[in-house]
Amino acid sequence: MTGGRLGNPSLRILFMGTPEFALPSLQRLLKSHHKIVAVVTVPDVPQGRGQKLQASPVKRAALNAGLPVLQPLSLNDPEFLSQLCTLEPDLGVVVAFRILPKSVFELPPLGTVNLHASLLPKYRGAAPIQWALINGEQVTGVTTFFIREKVDTGSIIIQRSILIGEDETAGELHDRLAVLGAELMEETVDLIARGEVKLQEQDDLLATAAPKITKEMCEINWKQPARRIHNLIRALSPEPGAFTFHEGRILKIYRTHVIADQGVFGAPGTVLRADFELHIAADPGALSVLQLQVEGRKILPADAFLRGYSLRAGESLGLPR
Asked: 280: domain CATH number?
């Protein structure tokens, strides 16, 4: 720990993260008076048809900033742990990374903090943004906490809440939470540096799970209420995408609006309208499909999609159940 702004000591930070969600936090800490001594991220992975090695978004940002980057295959590798000791970090900061062993998260003298995209103890797990939308939550937020061995159970440092839009997608909410989380992480690091943290223990009785999304979860069951289907679709947009079938072809649906929560408009999955608008019956209620994609083609607004794809009122979507 070194001197910083008046009354706000500067910490040596070990930053750990991988995806786009971590970038606002990394960039904000880079602009702070704290010093990032190194960045830990996943090894490069082969992607695309040529299987060319691709660096994580965090690695690319770290290299652009001139930061040392560590990419251990194993977080328990003695050589990796030795490198961490040499860096002498005061604090570890984790934003969307792997589960850390005790040997890593206890190495910095001030511990290791994590940013999680929910109001813990709600939505512990890999997909908190998606599950908040699937369950129709109207409020979510971000939490910083000290890491413990049991995932997402550590003592809470700060939380901030945010309202969820009725038609907001996971991608849109992800971006807003990433920015809010970056603000919260900088505030958290400053509090730790000044020794002003007031911890709050999580109540395990209030905990809910947010497990990884599987392919089986992504298929639309039209025999569900319109609101529930709408929530699933926006929770899986833009990735991996909720899907249904038409004449054996996969249709991915990315954006919808609920026309009606109640009422019977036709058999579940029936196309009610397919001119410049696309309306589908649920059970109960109905949805307007605003954005979709047939396999092998690009994502289109409904009106453009209908001009190039044969879909008529009275046809059915989905497989027989």
From this structure: 3.10.25.10
